[in-house]
Amino acid sequence: MSHGVDQQRRLLLGGLLAAAASPGFTAGAGDPGSRRPPVPSAPLHPALRSAQSADGTRLHYVSGGSGPLALVFIHGWSCNHRFFWPQLAAVAGAYRFVALDLAGHGESERRHTAVSVTAFADDVEAVIRSEVPTGPLVLVAHSTGGRVACALAGRLGARLAGIIGVDSFQNLGLPLPTDAVIAARLASQHADFIGDTQRFVKACFRPGADPVLVEWVARQMTATNAAAAIAASEAFARFDGRAAIAGWPRRVVALNSDLFPTDYRRIREVLPAFDLLLFAGRGHFPNLEDPAAFNPILLATVQRILAEQPPA
């Protein structure tokens, strides 16, 4: 991305933050000893639900909030719904929300059929049918959860108003990794899943990041069943997100950090309605590193997507 485009995106980010900041937001300290992230969050008491995916896999999810629009949160590789906890609390006053654990992650059952991004999309669709069978939707997807969102774009029809990525879509439009690259990655995970994942987590944060948060993320990600996580890793690596979503006409916005480069122009060749907002100086989990800055931007982005919808 050129310096001019980069500067425009940063200015847009600042403008949205100023417009959407809510003086009524009250943050409570997270509990580092719990399974919730150790970051500020408004109080949240979601309903605990379960559903069955198309292949019979039992899925765990949480839901809450109210309103005609539902935000559906999709976590990334080896994560779970708790990675969105501060966002669920922030949106609950204005929108319905659903946040699931994909099969093999969090409290959902391991998949006993083939693991694929298509199957993960089945998971999300099953939860949508169970909890929000009607009404408009916005998908909020972190990291590789964006690939699941790509798989869902063509499935959900006119109900899907837009997609919001959280440090996601950076690789959209790039060639898929070679078999040799995938094999090397999987070999490292098979040899030492915990150590490999811990190294991955460390690379996802900048020096000086909150060590309590870094440790929480590492603990959550290494708690995923190794076989399920490695199968998911291969599935994500082999999925062609470009083919799944190319030309999709509705708004896709990435709320990304600048830790990994996002090629705005290349992605716009795939998705003409793509836009990018950068959180400078953050890592791969900007929603957890600074929820007080991130949450108003998320809410403003949802409002923007709704404002762009054609009249009913």
Task: List its traits.
alpha/beta; globular; 12 helices; Rossmann fold; 312 residues; disordered N terminus; 8 strands; eight-stranded mixed sheet
Your description of this structure?
The structure is a single chain. The chain has helices at 3-20, 85-91, 117-131, 145-153, 179-191, 193-203, 211-222, 226-238, 241-245, 264-270, 286-289, 291-307, and strands spanning 47-52, 58-65, 70-74, 96-100, 137-142, 160-166, 251-257, 274-279. It has 312 residues and is of the alpha/beta class. It has a single domain (3-307), classed as 3-Layer(aba) Sandwich (Rossmann fold), CATH 3.40.50. It has an 8-stranded mixed beta sheet, sandwiched between helices. It starts with a helix and ends in a 5-residue tail after the last helix.
Classified in CATH, the superfamily is Alpha/Beta hydrolase fold, catalytic domain
- Named CATH topology: Rossmann fold
| Rg over C-alpha atoms, rounded to the nearest angstrom | 18 Å
Summed over residues and divided by their number, the pLDDT gives a mean of 90
Q: Count of DSSP helices? A: 12
Q: Biggest sheet, open or closed, and with what strands and sense?
A: 8 strands, mixed
Query: Strand pairing plus helix content: what structural class?
Result: alpha/beta
How many beta strands in the DSSP annotation? 8
N-to-C series of helices and strands: HEEEHEHEHEHHHHHEHEHH
Strand proportion? 15-25%
Write the layout of secondary structure elements.
Blueprint: H1 3-20, E1 47-52, E2 58-65, E3 70-74, H2 85-91, E4 96-100, H3 117-131, E5 137-142, H4 145-153, E6 160-166, H5 179-191, H6 193-203, H7 211-222, H8 226-238, H9 241-245, E7 251-257, H10 264-270, E8 274-279, H11 286-289, H12 291-307
Parallel strand pairs: 3-4, 3-5, 5-6, 6-7, 7-8
Antiparallel strand pairs: 1-2, 2-4
Helix pairs in contact: 1-12, 2-12, 3-4, 5-6, 5-8, 6-7
